[in-house]
Automatic annotation (TrEMBL):
This is Cell division ATP-binding protein FtsE. Residues 22-257 form the ABC transporter domain. It comes from the Bacteria. Pfam families: ABC_tran, NIL. Gene3D superfamilies: 3.30.70.260, P-loop containing nucleotide triphosphate hydrolases. PANTHER family: AMINO ACID IMPORT ATP-BINDING PROTEIN, METHIONINE IMPORT ATP-BINDING PROTEIN METN. One of its GO terms (cellular component) is plasma membrane. It comes from Rhizobium subbaraonis. SUPFAM superfamilies: ACT-like, P-loop containing nucleoside triphosphate hydrolases. One of its GO terms (biological process) is amino acid transport.
Length: 359
């Protein structure tokens, strides 16, 4: 049987890496005075997982609706697999919509149909025979780890299982793109991790291209290759996930990251003063291979030592991304030497203030 999936595979995948599945150029969609989408240019490359993150009202839903042709941009271009969709009629859009599989926050399963019927439904629309549909549904349920549930009804499933059915259904017709719209927002952390792991697995196994819409940086960190940050209808920052985590340039990205990046503990922050009394507190950001060994080196370079107040090193896409807070004794040239040492090793250092009493 030929596979309905876009195939992954060594060299072939490497060559296709930069091929665009979706390309938006200068897309605008205004509602009265509200620029819901305000000049968005964004490309989703074949085989990648692109995370699109933004706060409520940033324009994510409008962008999705433009992508599947439910909303027409005021201007700009949207290409799916190289084909311009903005001028197409409803009828012309139908086959293109089927190139995009979608999964949703609330799963959107049909409660009166069994799991296998839900999964097979898109194939009915494609005109597949019952036998072929059920065989494909069985294959997909196996892929998402739900082989034993084919005859169950959605009401008998957990949230995580329902989303697995949603994923199987979205993949049924062999889409070019899987669009995940807040697909884990209704799930607990453990189930979220399992579903994200499954998406990552399918991406690796099948080379499936995924556009992941979310308001949670945690989700982006777990599985995305690249991230684009949308704010007030504009893409304000875009890049490899590790790079944006290591060096968020905009206030909105910093704010979206604030919940999951180490920050100076409140009780220390409350005691910070600007006058040069007591220990100097430094905020240090560093990405790259040196992050893990930097502190050992700093220890050797500073006669008076230092205090690790908070923070650590995490690994994103095989890159180490470090963020920590140090207390340096004020004596002699310790703080200046610490800053010079850290900057020499590529760290971004911020002098946050002094903590009186910590001498
Ligand atoms: N049909 C509409 N009519 C008028 N304004 C709209 C319409 N759809 C969206 N908007 C406005 O466009 C902006 C972007 O909305 P959108 O729903 O795309 O944001 P979002 O990022 O998806 O938010 P959420 O995460 O809350 O769903 C908001 O200011 C919203 O009020």
């Amino acid at each position: 049987m030929t596979s309905p999936f876009p195939q992954a595979g060594g060299a072939e995948q490497g060559e296709n890496r930069r091929e665009a599945v979706v390309r938006l150029s200068g897309v605008h969609r205004h509602f009265g005075d509200t620029p819901a989408i305000d000049g968005v240019s964004l490309t989703v490359h074949k085989g990648e997982i692109l995370g699109l993150i933004g706060r409520s009202g940033a324009g994510k839903s409008t962008l999705i609706r433009c992508l599947n042709g439910l909303e027409r941009p005021d201007r700009g271009s949207i290409k799916i697999e190289g084909r311009e969709i903005t001028g197409l009629s409803e009828e012309q859009l139908q086959p293109l919509r089927r190139r995009i599989g979608m999964i949703f926050q609330h799963f959107n399963l049909l409660s009166a149909k069994t799991v296998e019927e839900n999964v097979a439904l898109p194939l009915k629309i494609e005109g597949w025979s019952t036998e072929k549909r059920l065989a494909r549904a069985a294959e997909l349920l196996d892929l998402v780890g739900l082989s034993g549930k084919a005859r169950s009804y959605p009401s008998a499933l957990s949230g995580g299982q329902k989303q697995r059915v949603g994923i199987a259904r979205a993949l049924a017709a062999g889409p070019a793109l899987l669009l995940s719209d807040e697909a884990t927002s209704a799930l607990d952390p453990e189930t979220t991790a399992a579903i994200l792991e499954l998406l990552k697995d399918i991406n690796a196994k099948l080379g499936l291209t995924i556009l992941l819409i979310t308001h949670e940086m945690e989700v982006i960190r777990s599985i995305a290759d690249r991230v684009a940050v949308i704010d007030a209808g504009r893409i304000v920052e875009e890049g490899p996930v590790w790079s944006v985590f290591a060096n968020p340039r905009t206030a909105i990205t910093q704010s979206l990251l604030s919940g999951i990046r180490p920050h100076l503990p409140q009780h220390v922050a409350a005691r910070l003063v600007s006058e040069p009394v007591g220990e100097v507190v430094l905020g240090v950001d560093l990405s790259g291979p040196d992050a893990g060994v930097l502190l050992a080196g700093l220890s050797g370079a500073l006669a008076g030592g230092f205090r690790l107040i908070h923070g650590g090193v995490e690994h994103i896409q095989q890159q180490s991304v470090a963020r920590f807070f140090l207390g340096i004794p004020p004596a002699s040239d310790g703080p200046a030497r610490a800053v010079a040492y850290l900057e020499r090793h590529g760290a971004k250092v911020e002098v946050l203030g002094h903590v009186p009493g910590h001498d």
